[in-house]
Protein 1
Amino acid sequence: MAELDQVDPFAHATVAVQDVHVRYRVPSTDAAERRRHTNPISRAARAVLGNDPKVLVRALSGISFVARSGEQIGLVGQNGSGKSTLLRIIAGLENPAKGKVLAESTPVLIGVNAALVPDLSGEENIRLGCLAMGLSPEQAEAAIPEVKELAGLGKSIFLPMKTYSSGMGARLRFAIATAANPHILLIDEALATGDAAFRERSEARMQGLRDGAGTVFLVSHAAQTIEETCTRAIWLNHGRLVLDGPAEDVALRYRKWAWAVAKDKPDEARTIIERAFAEREQTYVHVEEPKAPRQYNARHVRPQSAARRQDKGKS
Ligand SMILES: Nc1ncnc2c1ncn2[C@@H]1O[C@H](COP(=O)(O)OP(=O)(O)OP(=O)(O)O)[C@@H](O)[C@H]1O
């Protein structure tokens, strides 16, 4: 423990998320919104263009944390709490309205980084996906057997991907994404679709990535999956970070909260969230921009050195 205390927590940081805010302006058919927009100009514009008033959706509000190598971080929260948005922001697929995300290497978001083609077979898609992730043709060829084994699709691997069930597609995408040994792997519910044997193989694969000092982010609604596979968990609610801590602790509280919501006990649910908010340690992330080296040009340097030469001559 003493040794751990001496470790600089920022020395092994793989992802730093600094006060990230994400907002969307979306059209709403809510009649109350229509009434609120009483401005005659906007009403006239709506009458002409026929479009609905826009409302602001705050998908993420002030999210800050630092992920370190060797961590598997579970993201939990109810539908619409911002989990997928956070993964997209970390992957660099969207820019936050405010805040910053820094990653020490390119994060791989399963299913997006690998551009798969429905008309090609699973096997051909493995080759294509590996090349799309930056592997050389030789490396892609060498990776195929391992990816096939991890996906575990049997003879279906030779059939067009458009004939796969959603679970089969998810297994193949997961297997392809891990082939490039990404240092930062982002997984959105991929494991929920697999059977027990696939789960076991994929958990072993993720353990391998973590052992290689990588960081894995896993989105799941199931507190049990987070408890069993993650070292740390982040609980999001309406785009805000409720709790960030050891997976077992966060999963337990999230489960209690979900139970209170399911049993229609809003006061109990609110108390659990408020207590978690009050107890959580606030993380402030400060990212230092590297300073640009000072630029000197010849005109500035010469007079000074000339003066120095004169001084030396005098002494
Ligand atoms: N492209 C978008 N345009 C407008 N609103 C969006 C967009 N993407 C997400 N949102 C909104 O942002 C909020 C967070 O959505 P997000 O998909 O991140 O939630 P989630 O926690 O992943 O949900 P789920 O568990 O259902 O997958 C939701 O209110 C959603 O409606």
Protein 2
Amino acid sequence: MDLYDVPKNRTLTKVWYNPEGHHTMPAYLNSLNNFILRSRLPADKDHQQYSISVSSHPYPGQVEEEDAMVKGLVNTLVALCVLTGFSIMTASFVVYEVQEHHSGSKRLQHISGISEPFYWTINFLYDMALYLVPVAFSVAMIAAFQLPAFTERQNLGAVTLLLVLFGFATFPWMYLLTAIFKDAEMAFISYVCINLFVSVNTIISTSILYFLGQLNESDESIQAVYHTLSHVFLIFPQFSFGNGLMELARVDLQVQILKAYGVDAYKDPYSADMLGWMFLSLVLQGLLAFTLRLLMNKWLMRKIRSFFCRGKVEPQKGTWDEDEDVVAEHRRVYSGEADTDVLQLSQLSKIYQHLSKKVQAVKRLSVGIPAGECFGLLGVNGAGKTTTFKMLTGDVSPTNGTAQIRDQEGRMVDIMDCRKEGINIGYCPQVDALDDLLTGEEHLYFYARIRGISKREMHRVVNYLLRKLELGYHRNTTSENYSCGTRRKLSTALALVGSPQILLLDEPSSGMDPRSKRHLWKIISEQVKGKCAVVLTSHSMEECEALCTRLAIMVQGQFRCLGSLQHIKNRFGSGFTVKMYLEMASCNVDTITNYMQEHFPSTYLKDHHSTMVEYHVPIAPGGIADIFDQLESNKTALQIKHFSVSQTTLDEVFINFAMGKVGVETVHSEGSDSDSLDSFDAVDI
Ligand SMILES: Nc1ncnc2c1ncn2[C@@H]1O[C@H](COP(=O)(O)OP(=O)(O)OP(=O)(O)O)[C@@H](O)[C@H]1O
């Protein structure tokens, strides 16, 4: 029978073989094929010479596949390690900006002439340049270990681009958050946590979906969810970066497996179905966040605010507790009489808003400060002095009102625009805004450069200020090793760079020894004499008495009195302070109080500690001699050991305001002139 004449659907031959023997099936098949061959041979041929041989070898691809799986796992681990390392490392770059924001150094640089967009651009360029160093090291390491997933053909270039773009996209969003952190350590931990949290969660969730999709190829919904999430998560730079590395590892696994079959599954890493979208999203994220960073600056915010609240602020009606001098200054500023003053605050107010809670830190401050005046801002802790300074330096925007400066042409310009108009403001912040790594001399050179002092002049200016502030000895020491007083001196020196027209000094002498303090007072007085307008806050009444030509005392954000030192003393410091030391702590103070009030009407007890009692005597018809007489003759009966009588000092006026002892009645009824009081010297007995 001819083997080819087999009817359809009819099996000609059936071969049974044992599947446990790997070679049985090909052996049987080969026997069958030989049988067919020989049956087809012509009869004259020797059958022994015709045969088909089959040889069986183990399949080589099986071992390689396992190898490829292990390599794929290694690549995934390498990708995760790179992602973790760079998540931590990028966070460490932005810590410096947080530190500068927190220390006030950034604000000082803005006041000295560096605009916010310039500050961020320079920092970004510097961070990127520095960031390229670890990127170069990482690329060198990857290249040295020759992991095909990251080095094959164009893959090394793609990895390098991913690393660079990760920094490009990550730094700007970190810059956006610098203001919310209170310290650099917290910022670092938060940035690392955000980076790791986002990357781990997005990558693990998409990887699980990817593998589930591979296992259930028929289930298209898993694939769809995977693709959707992979696109949505592109908004996170951490995902774009991490997933880019994982994608290279995944594709390399396929390449290695299919290589055994002679298939080249390599994909161009820059193509859209590989890392193309990831590169694009990283670039867009970087550009968007950096543009936002440039736009979200105080200058622009103020411009937007002032656009919506245009027009000069109307003077609001004085409230019950506004002093007549404060109201008069309001009127002077509003009527334009203060237009020749260098610095003009008009109805300056600040309300801090925390969720539903509002804190009115500063209320309607109006004052004009002419050139050659040192204006003192006094107040207890929390009175609003620092907030006022922050508004003057542009650190916080006023909720209402304006702070303006008169330029050389006599135009009033907003204090935020003063640098553009060539007006120099010197600022000595309450907390020293120094860079711990710079020496005193380097600080001065840095700020001299920012202020635009020419190279020729710079050396002279720096040496002059080092000499003037007695910093010569510390010129080459880094500021982290400075004592508190020396730091204050350096902060003051920085405020004096470029001979500013306006000097803002926030407690400049705190922490200085008495000799340095007096030396500083001398320097400030020289500045005032040189027609500089100085605003000074201090808790030292002695300092205010020594320097201030006019001063105001702030209570709960408001000026409670304003005028020259003498004027304030005359109005609120009338009368005498009587200080007594009693025989024993158990002596009856009420008896003494009654006695004092009987002889000197309106006398009140100011203070009482152990054996010390202090009275304020507003009216003594017989003057100081009368008080002295009365107490001396009743000293034994009242059990007084010794006592002193002095004219009320600024210190006491301040304490009276701080303790709320000067109310509206006092403000309005005690306006009588008592210039003669100052002619008494303190009498100690
Ligand atoms: N960022 C802020 N958020 C909310 N409230 C604030 C903020 N800064 C200050 N305040 C509040 O504003 C008020 C004025 O504070 P400010 O620091 O201006 O006082 P100060 O007179 O400078 O005090 P000190 O003499 O202690 O420096 C205080 O009640 C304070 O709690």
Protein 3
Amino acid sequence: MLELKNISFQVPDEKTRNTKEIGILKDVSLTLEDNQFVVITGPNGGGKSTLAKIIAGIEKPTSGQILFDGQDITDMSITDRAKLGISYAFQQPVRFKGVTVFDLLRLAAGKEISVAGACEYLSKVGLCAKDYIRREVNGSLSGGEIKRIEIATILARKTRVSVFDEPEAGIDLWSFQNLIQVFEEMHEQLHGSILIISHQERILNIADRIILIADGKLVKKGTKEEVLPELLGTANAAPSCDKAANRK
Ligand SMILES: Nc1ncnc2c1ncn2[C@@H]1O[C@H](COP(=O)(O)OP(=O)(O)OP(=O)(O)O)[C@@H](O)[C@H]1O
């Protein structure tokens, strides 16, 4: 079980020459139960990616505590969190020059896997495996391809907590349908928790719980029946222009 207790994240406000701070996350508490599928959604700039990075250990909260099975991991590095079983797929994945797709999948699996085994992960994310397995994970891959390869590495990793930041970004409609199935299968077969940041109603629809984050705060959490109607009802509301002022 992963618990976030009163997480806040502040950064210096450049507009005030760093004399003041901007609150990106404000006192966010949430629990990710074992085997639970949670989707975090909310308006752009609300703090969702920051929260995911805090879980992965990429950012450190200004205050608050993160517990994993009761162990305080707030000050733990990304590598140590990964060893504990927390994996994270970036909104914009990183490229690794000189490393092939096969190497990356083997590294992710943490053990020797066959080419056939690696190809299976690629097929799951809608890539024709033979076209990609020997390719380098460099700038020659398109945004959608690299995104799918990264999702395949998370599948290979089979960790206790898998965090995906907007997995749908850059993915075409056909592959998107596949992706939904991948997440459903992951949820059924993997004994771990899945946390997805998404704006897509179809991903929200397959979640056990939905969390709404806006303006750095946890605004609502509950089942899709509890959260979706209100969310869809407010989706057309005009965006606020005084967001920056509200953050203070
Ligand atoms: N290190 C930082 N310094 C300054 N501002 C930051 C920093 N990190 C995040 N922000 C700001 O905090 C806000 C929240 O960013 P974040 O990426 O977490 O939002 P998000 O909810 O994931 O948005 P989106 O839906 O657009 O991906 C944004 O306005 C962003 O510009």
